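Notebook B, p. 112. Complex prediction, attempt 2.
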Amino acid sequence: MSPAAAEPLTPERILETTEEVLRRYGPAKATVVDVARALGVSHGSVYRHFPSKAALREAVTERWLGKTVGRLEEIASDGAESAPSKLEAWLEALFDAKRHKAGDDPELFATYTVLLAENSGVVEAHLAELVEQLGRIIAEGVEAGTLDVPDVPAAARAVFDATGRFHDPQYAAEWTSPTISREFEAVTSLVVRGLRA
Amino acid sequence: MSPAAAEPLTPERILETTEEVLRRYGPAKATVVDVARALGVSHGSVYRHFPSKAALREAVTERWLGKTVGRLEEIASDGAESAPSKLEAWLEALFDAKRHKAGDDPELFATYTVLLAENSGVVEAHLAELVEQLGRIIAEGVEAGTLDVPDVPAAARAVFDATGRFHDPQYAAEWTSPTISREFEAVTSLVVRGLRA
C-alpha cells in the first residue's frame, strides 16, 4: 500500500491500512506510527479518528467480523424462502465465510484470532447479533407453522452452540478435513429437524 | 505419595504415581526418573513396564480418558431405559465427568490438556469409542421405533459434534458460566428431538 496523502483520510482508509500493517508486522509489533507511516500522514491524524491504539484495534476487529454479517442478514431477511431452508442456507453461509477467512489468508486469520481474544466485548456483540438473526428466522418459522419451538431465543442460542464446530475459530484446523462438509451437513440437518413442527 | 517399594510394582501403581508427578512438576518437567524416585525404585524398573517416557505418558493419558468411559458404558448398555432417555443421560454424564475433571483439579486438567495434544492417537481412539457408544444407543432407538435415523454412525457423530461445547476441553473455561446448564439442556433436547421418530 503506497502513501496517498492526497486522498481524504477516512476511518475506512485507516482501517484498511491497519489491516495491511497487522498482516505485515503481526499483532504484537504493529503500532499506530506504522499505520500513519503507511498512510503518509502524522500519527496525530490517525489519533483524530481513533483516540488510542486499543480503539483502532477494536475498530479493525469489528470491521472484520462485520464483513460476514451483511451476507447473513440478506439470508435472514429473505421474504421468499421458508424458515427451515433459510436456517440451512444461513448456517452454510456462516461456515463458508469462516472457512474462506481461515483458508484464503491464514496469516490474517491468525492475526485476528489474537485480536478477538483482546476484544471480547466486540466479539460478544458480534455473536449476539448472529444469534439474534437466527432468532428472527426461527420466530418466522414458528409464525408460519413450519417450526415448533417453545422458547425462540433459547433455541437460537442452541442452534448456534450446536454448530460451533463449523464457525468457532478454535476449530479452524479441522475445516480442511476431507469429511468436514459431510459432518457439517449431518449436524445442520439434525438441528433443523430438531426445530421442525 | 511416600515410597513403598515393598508393594509389587504394578503398571497401575506406576501410572498413579506418574499422575502425581505430572501434577507436581508439570508436563514439561516431569521425567521417568522423578516417577521412579517417587516409587522408591530404579528407573529401569519403570522402563520394564513402559519402554519409554512417551509410552508412559501415552498410558497415563489413556487411563485418565478411560475413567469417563466406564460410567458411560453403563448407561449405554442399560436395558431398562428408552433410547431417548439414555441419550440424554449419557450426554449429561459426559458433561458432568468433564466438568468435574476441569473444576475439581484444574492443574491436573491443564496437565492433561498438554498430554492430549501430544497423544493424538490415544485421543482419537477415545473419541471413536464414545461415538461408538452413542451409535449403539441410537441403533437401539431405531430398532425400537423411538428414533428415526437414516445413517446411524453419521447421526452418532453429529450428536457428538453438536454437543462439543459441553465436552471439548477447549471450552472448559465456559463450564463455570451460570447459564451453562440451561444451554446444555437446550442443545441436548434440540439434538434428541432431531433424532426422534
